[in-house]
Specification:
By secondary structure, the chain is an alpha/beta fold. 36% of the residues lie in helices and 22% in strands. The longest helix is centred in the N-terminal third of the chain and has 26 residues. The structure holds ligand BES and zinc ion (2 copies).
Length: 479
Amino acid sequence: MIRIDNDNSYEYSAEFFFEKDADRQELPDTVQKIFDGGFLKTQFLYLGKEGSQSSILLVGLGKDITDKIEIKEAAAKVSSVMKSYKIKQFGVNISKLYHSIGLECVRDITEGLMLGLYEERKFPETERDEYDMILTGIPEGKRKEAKLLVQETVPVIEGVIFARDMVNLPGNKLRPEDFAGEIIKFLRNTKVMVETLDFGQLKEMGMGGLVSVGESSEFPPVFVILRYINNPDCKDITALVGKGVTCDTGGYCLKPAGSMLGIKGDMAGGAAVAGAIYALAQNQVKTNVIGFIPVCENRISPGSLLPGDVITSYSGKTIEVLNTDAEGRLILADTIAYAAAKEHVTKVLDIATLTGAVVNMLGFSVAGVVTDSQEFFDEFRAAYHISGERYWRLPVYPEHEKMIQSKIADIKNMGEKYCGTITAGLFIKAFAEGLPWLHIDIAGTAWVDSPIFAYQSKGATGAGVTSIYHLCSREGGEY
Ligand code: BES
Ligand code: ZN
Ligand code: ZN
């Protein structure tokens, strides 16, 4: 729990220091010798006064602090250090951050404090501890606004934590049916209407991509639809489409053993969609979104796709499958065509751990964006500036489109050796029926083997949740 209070007399509390503060006389000499306010440096200071005892965690902010990521990191440092000492109630004096950044810092501090406590689930499962974190040092006239910011941010980060949990779960603990079940459970007490379509229904509907990939496993595919319609004055509906491959072995184009460890995280896009929709619903944002999550496994079985096969997708378009490891785009193609044809959505955002190429290009802290709509990208950019996630838009030209033309089918699922992220995006665009469309490739950012930022932990990051939330909440005119 995160609260706002003006009382600063907690047994344990955290205090931020810039380098310039640390060498001013504020701190005892002995402490100045070991704590210089360097960014993310920490030091506990014990204050034993008569009748009362308290300890202060000093947290360094470096020379200056300007960026949201740094604030989130500093806040995460506070909660993770407190957690390491099993301190479950503590104050956090944010007055220095408030004075250098303004009220918006409350959002980032809330994010950082919550994420700094994150740990992946263990087996056998244990309960997660509750923490009582109190923000102090906010001027009285601003406390109400600060409280609203905390209230808005908590469900967003619960969405991030859900996404992290799903991605971190081992493949054998999260079959397609389990993933659908977890989403249903997570959204149970919200205004989101959840519908699932089973393997039989998907076959009948002609979902050729999802059926032919899903057939590769004894654990059948399922299609999850999340309807959150909360703006009757507006006819626009945004489709949020997330790849939900609970295990991607590559199929017959089998991944090498060294690339297999991350295969359980191939549903990060689907998890991000569910997390973002949860936050929109909890905050009662006035908007219309429908989430579509095709969930399946990509394995080897007698009936699995083989390189060279041709399938017919939901749209009627035929696809030459040249690589069975490029399965994400096959299931997303069906999904987007379905969203456009049957649910009358007016724009499409899709998010997927789609290509290794994006990792080569942008690494683990920047996700790739492919879109042909400047307007949609501008909206998304405004949203990710609020969340502090990093994205980079890739170019799209006719020569890229040519790379996925097939001689024997309408399109092929693999381009040439280079620009794999762009051709993967353009493959998906071919099924968006001309609607404004924006594709996010989080193959690099959904997972970190070693954390890049202090609010991450090894494994899933929950990439995309916050930016998608802000995109959709701004549409509702909230900001
Ligand atoms: N899920 C993978 C992409 C991926 C790679 C995610 C690394 C996370 C980390 C996707 O299904 C895939 O295997 N894509 C292929 C496409 C290629 C065969 C055209 C790839 O990127 O190698
Ligand atoms: Zn694959
Ligand atoms: Zn995949």
